[in-house]
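EI: anyone free to look at a 454-residue chain?
SC: sure, send it
EI:
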Amino acid sequence: MTALARVALVGRPNVGKSTLFNRLVRKKLAIVDDSAGTTRDWREAEADLAGLRFLAIDTAGLEDARGDVMEARMRQGTERALAEADVALFVIDAREGVTPTDRYFADVMRKQSTPVILVVNKVEGRATMSGLGEAYALGLGDPVPLSAVHGDGFADLYEALVPYVPVPEEGDEEAREEGPRKINLAIVGRPNAGKSTLLNALVGDERALTGPEPGLTRDSIHVEWTYKDRPIRLVDTAGMRKRARVVDVLEKAAVDETLRAIRLAHVVVLVLDANAILDKQDLTIARLVEEEGRALVLAVNKWDIVDDKNESVQRLKDRIQTSLAQVREIVALPISAKKERGLDKLMDAVLTMHDLWDTRIATGRLNRWLAGMTQSHPPPAVSGRANRARYMTQIKARPPTFALWCSHPEALPDSYVRYLVNGLRDAFKLPGIPIRFLLRKGENPYADKGSDED
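SC: here you go
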């Protein structure tokens, strides 16, 4: 299969790189706002420009900053993305014209080895023509004028990219479908729990911006990765604070992006701070993951700095027992993302939970199990008449979802449903997996369709 070319979008803050990125990938993946510095990490997604397929990389705005300040770390991430790219789109703003910062970074771009295409964004009306004319003085060749907001000028961008982006070879689409199915793994948690540090430790690269400042991550950062031959899409998300404390527009957008990442995930790793295990906000996030039907693994981070580990373990078990009883035997593992300890056990647990989440149980096995359960503990009678559990089947996986046909579903107590769900977990080895259990009225709907296979 032909590897996708990597196209990095670079430029100073607020020139429209994220808007262009969203246009290329045909989704609103990057948060867009008028304030400078909205994008802090670089993120990538597959783009399609009139059949020309490539990996688009949205980067943080280039600023002339040094040292360990956040802007300097953002610039370092952009420079790394640029070094890994096959071609760069250097984006400037036609409305503002060429600025001293544009000139400075144009000089930088000319000296590095990655080919550069100069893109003049926000070309809308005659008032922006002077900015387009100034772009020629940057010495980066003929500029490509376009409007990312309105979708104008993308035919010229296509022509500019063709020399650097190979046309997909015949049979590539079929090759893309072969092999194991990709696991979508979202890393979530409160601010400063160590989510970005965990992502960097897993992939062995400073892929996400980290630092002592809370709320560094805004966009969800997607990284394609492989663990034990299993393809994984890692998603680092913004920290989720209590809703009442979220007042900033950008933070609200970041939280919405995190919620979207949870909904699209297969497995969610909830990163906990070992010094504040499963506080109220952690529990809120865990319940949200369960409600969305995603497989959940708890990663107790910063375990290396915990003084009384036995006391912490007991506190964690107590909190799970009292506050997450709806997901029995949830997996919780101590790790240190900073020192890269416990990561293999964490990822092995992720693979196991994904496979359990994708479990399918044959109808014959389910109904033999159901007969034993109802014989040991029959459903409570309704007005002196038996409430017969007649038939059961699994109607979907991801998460495992079961339907039970009985005489009076409306009268079956919640306690009896919990008895059946807990029995399912024990009999079919489904610890820590969200289970959906639906009640239906009537006889066996498949009674006249032949016997079920095991």
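EI: The CA atoms of residues 4 and 54 lie 5 Å apart.
SC: 👍
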